[in-house]
Amino acid sequence: MVYIHVKKIGNQKYYTLRMSVRKGNKVITKDLCNLGNDLLKINLNNLEKKYKDKIRKSYRTLKNFLEKNIYLDKIKHLKLKQDIYLTKNEQLDIKAILHHYKSKFLKQDKLTQKEIFESFLINFAVNSTSIEGNTITLKQAYDLFKENILPKNRTLREVYDLTNTKDVLEFLRKEKPKVNERLIIKIHDMLLENIDERKGFRNHEIRIFGQPFNPSPVKYLKSDISILLNWYEENKNKLSSLVLATLFLHKFEKIHPFSDGNGRTGRVLMNHILYLSGYPPVII
Q1: 43 within a domain of the structure (yes/no)
Q2: Per the CB 3.0–4.6 Å rule, which of 54, 71, 176, 268 could disulfide with 96?
């Protein structure tokens, strides 16, 4: 395995291209070359020409390391606000990701952005629905969305589960609707289309087996949603967008306003809040 080793002397970082090989129970390392102290001057393509066989297998890891640390270097001078939820390093990581998103993804042509977003949609749909027990694999999902090939030995419910998730994310990205009670219900309706005929907030009590909390009683459900939405409006310009979206998801799931589909609805809402704030979406 080939990787970039970092050594810090004082406030300065120095980089070395290093190779490690396992022999028995031991790991032997060997430095291939010094890379200096400036990440911007490290040319991975030139290194690949010189150490082709060694770098080939680790190319993606090396590329990701360089991209991540270059963007961290670019934002390390920023003054950070005190945050009770995030450490300084976590704030820097988030700033670097956001800078990378804006300077790389948003600079791509529209077709490339569309293709990348479609790939994300499929990955998100598979991950989000698998948490709820959907058994359609990532490969089957790609075949479904790209080639219109229905997965074998899977139920229509599982197929609708995926297609509904993709449809609602595309709707949110296009329309950019405001976060309110009407939107929460609409997202849930779209996610459960052809799956569950129950529309709107639940009218019965529920219990989440194995979970150490009780969802909002029906009597207080709508008022708890109103409290959540008021909290969101009061904090959307105060909290870090990632913290805001994460706390919103946590508070929403504690309410559990629907008979089914609460997790899927919450994860979509979290990403919508991130998108409205100019952040890239995430997969949980």
Answers
A1: yes
A2: 71
Q: In angstroms, rounded to a whole number, what is the distance separating the alpha carbons of residues 228 and 269?
A: 13
Residue 254's Cβ-side half-sphere holds a number of Cα atoms within 13 Å equal to 13
Q: Specify the residue for token string 């609708």.
A: 160
Q: What DSSP designation does 205 have?
A: -
The 10s digit of each residue's pLDDT in 75-123 is 888 888 889 999 999 999 999 999 999 999 999 999 999 999 999 999 9
Q: For the stretch 134-169, what's the b/e string if a residue is b when 16 or more beta carbons lie within 10 angstroms of its beta carbon?
A: bebeeebbbebbeeeeebeebeeebbbbbbbbbbbb
- 192 shares its domain with 259: yes
Residue 282 lies in a domain: no
Does one domain contain both 80 and 125? no
**Structural domain contains residue 67:** yes
Longest Cα–Cα distance in the chain: 70
